[in-house]
């Protein structure tokens, strides 16, 4: 029976109290409470301590609000914070935070166990810290491998011990006659407020311990918010009452000097030792339960390399991630054997705080963007989430600026590594929503007619099959050089290809361009024929003011297509689109990309646009070694002198560094001179005549092709846009 199976399956899951509240509270009531809280009270006094506790808990509470909002938005599976972040911000950011979070939790197990071993060795000096740590790791690891339920039940015992220690402290008596110092004693106060705050803050950051058990909870959406708020609230009450007890039973100097002051105040000092041991063991156990589940989630999502896929395997009725747990135990054994982890402890704290900050940012941005998919049952205003993020960032720098920078560097390196792996996630992310908002903001503020000085090409490439006409895409990429937009478009037959296939074609082209490291937009359009499709695309393609201003296409090689091709060019010109036609009759390509010849007809639109395009090409990596030669033909020597004086003035103001050459025809035909001068060039640029009505342009273009057929790869340029291109060059 399905219902029976579901009930049996859920019976092995954890509830709010055991799965979230208990591990979170036990991590909050940790070593800092026992060994550093008296020092805090002694340095900043009662009011200062209450202020630090309130401020610290406020940041934790704001983060809890964000966690609750994300956790109640969609079903939560294993992986805790990693799962929540990756499903909103994407696999790369989720992995960049998740991998350091796993390492921080795994190494935290070592830190807690070493702390336990040192305190036990202080009571029993004959015991060696290293062997205590190894034995403790094996016992806790065996418990985690045996049963999650049993591990949680062991935490109930630890909670009783901590409760016993607190009762013993409350029933204790003053050590000396003292008055409550509201702001500490100046003689004892050698540490400033924010330094004390930085020392105390990690004590209240245990909320993630319960979140990381998300995969083992019966109802994560209900248990995570409820259990987290309960833990934060109980922890806050305890931390607000303890300073009153400590300040009333010892003076500030004693509180600062004696880290074991609670043991001396308590009615039974042994209870405090049991509390310290319980706190360290419970924190270690919580991390030992949480860390493998983060590793398992990372493996499930294929964030880790292929060889680490076995970490996703589970075993037993409780589906314990045994491979991930064994790896965590092995890592802990290695680290506890070498002992001192104090050097990396600050960085580990930074990873936790970074996770909290990213969770706050995630919830804040989701709410701010008002994504339709973000409909949490627990609603939080985005201001509270962003306040939590700012609080986390501020605390990170207060605790350790260098460790903060180191943590961000590690996360950045992992992000770049994951980005290069091009992980395919099956879930959405915030990235698209953020980019859409930015694009909307930018497009609505684009000027209707920009100044000529700010002109950039926005190229629409009519490429056909990208594989067959790769040089068109290559030239567009070199012209834009990552500083302007270009779109690769393909017209497909509407009679042969259904509309459902269009998206598949676009995906194939995007993948092809991605493999070639080309960043371009892609558009596939169905039409009766390429010329009708090209006309329709130019008429309709674009968004607001962000429309293509330049059309780049290849030549037509079939005589029967010349008429519709010429009409299409005429339509582009009437639509105020610049036209670049690439003609490569012998498939020579751009060869060495070392010489560009521009045949100059004056500083008119075509001439100016050709200079701009050549300048943009020369700024690209592929053409940066190219020599650009501007060539002009004059009929006589007298004309040469006037042309030289004119070109000297023009090119001096252009600042392009291009060389120019004036050729005297001396009775020779212009086309003969061009063929002689440019036969070895890699690219030849020349202007196109303005298309005329009727069949005039068709005949002109046919003649132009015939006259230039001896030349290598040619680019015909027709400036049609209402832009003073000569102003761009000044």
UniProtKB/TrEMBL annotation:
It is found in: Membrane. The keyword RNA-binding does not apply. Residues 471-583 form the SLC12A transporter C-terminal domain. It comes from the Bacteria. Residues 20-428 form the Amino acid permease/ SLC12A domain. The keyword Transmembrane applies. Keywords: Membrane, Transmembrane, Transmembrane helix. Its main location: membrane. The chain crosses the membrane at residues 14-35, 47-72, 93-117, 129-147, 154-173, 193-215, 227-246, 266-289, 320-338, 344-365, 386-418. It holds the Pfam family SLC12. InterPro entries: AA-permease/SLC12A_dom (IPR004841), SLC12_C (IPR018491), SLC12A_fam (IPR004842). It is a multi-pass membrane protein. This is Amino acid permease. It comes from Cyclobacterium plantarum.
